[in-house]
Amino acid sequence: MAQQTPSTVVVIPARLHSSRLPGKVLADIGGKPLILRVWERALCANIGPVYVACAEEEVASVVLAAGGNVAMTDPALPSGSDRVWAALQEIEKDRGLCDCVVNLQGDLPFVEPRLLQEVISLFNKAPEADIATLAAFISYEQKSWEEPQIAKIALSFAPCGTYGRALYFSRSPIPHGEGSYAHHMGIYGFKRAALQRFVALPPSPLEKRESLEQLRALEAGMAIYVQMVDTVPQEVNTPEDLDRVRRMEVGCLSK
Q1: pTM higher than 0.85, yes or no?
Q2: SS3 string of the chain?
Q3: Regarding the domain with residue range 112-232, which homologous superfamily does it belong to in the CATH classification?
């Protein structure tokens, strides 16, 4: 019997009041707002309908004018995961319950559509996974492994070595010793029940200490599986990041 593809919704949480770069989701990149660049890439993944979870009408109007779908959320919600869950409640009023939801950060204008496909395919490889996410190897020689803004993962790999179960996430270099590190990226797939459970949990001690939301799931005994990929999409978190992506060739944006 053919394996049934789970019904999936992609939700891109977007709000104007980013602490490090206010208004970034509407920042112009190659003639289009950043949020539309991300939305277009998500559509190209062709894994399900794409919605932007908007906290402000300014963002919603831009997405709607481009022909996109929006779900309005409370700007006071504390995290992207909370915004995704709130948006999903509105989306499912019209579409019915989904099996999986992809939480795609709204600051990844160059994200390759295949990465979203990789996230969802991980649920077929590891049916026991509650949450699926992605990482790429950083060699010991690359200085980026020292940077605290990059979350690293200690993994228990499957025999094939291309994916594994996350044991811990940290801003510090883990595991100790020479060797490659797994650079985590902010693209998550949740089974619907797992997202519902996750947002109902209070912030955990390790989550607060590391400032990494995914540790809440691990402390609660949830299974996070990680697919290794060969690329890390450029994030836009600071004015320097925005300048960098604006200098990149517009051709890269249109792939």
Answers
A1: yes
A2: CCCCCCCEEEEEEECCCCCCCCCHHHCEECCEEHHHHHHHHHHHHCCCCEEEEECCHHHHHHHHHCCCEEEECCCCCCCHHHHHHHHHHHHHHHHCCCCEEEEECCCCCCCCHHHHHHHHHHHHHCCCCCEEEEEEEECCCCHHHHCCCCCEEEEEECCCCCEEEEEEEECCCCCCCCCCEEEEEEEEEEEHHHHHHHHHCCCCHHHHHHCCCHHHHHHCCCCEEEEEECCCCCCCCCHHHHHHHHHCCHHHHCC
A3: Spore Coat Polysaccharide Biosynthesis Protein SpsA; Chain A (3.90.550.10)
